[in-house]
Amino acid sequence: VQLVESGGGLVQTGGSLRLSCAASGSTFSIRTMGWYRQPPGKQRELVASFPSGGGRANYADSVKGRFTISRDEAKNTVYLQMNSLKPEDTAVYYCNARAWKIVDLYDYWGQGTQVTVSS
After folding, report:
1. How far is 79 from 34, CA to CA, in rounded Å?
2. How far apart are CA 88 and CA 42, in angstroms?
3. Alpha-carbon span 69 to 80, nearest angstrom
């Protein structure tokens, strides 16, 4: 599974950005997809994801009501709409796909896209 992200950039506080993540390769093996981020000097953290069993998306408390994850299954693409951005949203954002590899689930990652929110 290969993941290619796009859509990051520099935006002012209160602005919006939309990230895209296109999956290719063995997409039939993907169980779930989501977005993570790594702020400067901090650990990677979950932003939003679709649960493997279906149902509503999960969001980090810090982004609830501002970010929306969506997907286009026909295009094997996941999006992250980010509104009302804050300086603390500044981070490298990574697309994640959890997929079957032989008999185990394996995490695949995109290359990351920088999001910078200026105050």
Report:
1. 9
2. 12
3. 5
CA nearest neighbour of 80 among 40, 47, 109: 47
End-to-end CA distance of the chain: 37
Task: Give the amino acid at 9.
Answer: G
Q: pLDDT digit of tens for each residue in the chain (119 aa)?
A: 999 999 999 999 999 999 999 999 998 899 999 999 999 999 999 999 998 777 889 999 999 999 999 999 899 999 999 999 999 999 999 999 999 988 899 999 999 999 999 99
Concatenating the DSSP letter of every residue in 38-89 gives E-TTS--EEEEE--TT-SSPEE-TTTTTTEEEEEEGGGTEEEEEE-S--GGG
Give residue 105's identity as a one-letter amino acid code: L
Contact criterion met (CB below 8 Å) for 92 and 109:
no
